[in-house]
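Request from the bench team (R.T.):
"We need a structural guess for the complex before ordering more zinc ion. Sequence and SMILES attached. Just send the tokens back."

Command: build protein-zinc ion structure.
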Amino acid sequence: MAKKTYHAPYSPCPHCGNPLKTRLSRQLSELSREITMQCENPECLYCAVVIQSHLRVLQSSMNPNPRVFVPLSPRKYPLNHDGQLDLLNNG
Ligand SMILES: [Zn+2]
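Reply to R.T.: structure attached below.
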């Protein structure tokens, strides 16, 4: 069975698999956020503080903040000087 991929903001409870609901959230820096999450299952009620952080860049900002650095993700296809996929040179 393929591993499930969840898209934000859904996050499953690590104990029962039900959705975790965001209770509190605060910005720690430009790149990280502290989030208090609680399980919606009334028979579980797991509650935890988690960190949301930027790990790698998939598309660089067109309006970059000079204080922010996030490493580029390795790409399968290199971009040309215009930031477009260079499909002609990837045989
Ligand atoms: Zn739970």
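Two things stood out. The mean pLDDT is 85. The chain is about 0% helix and 25% strand.
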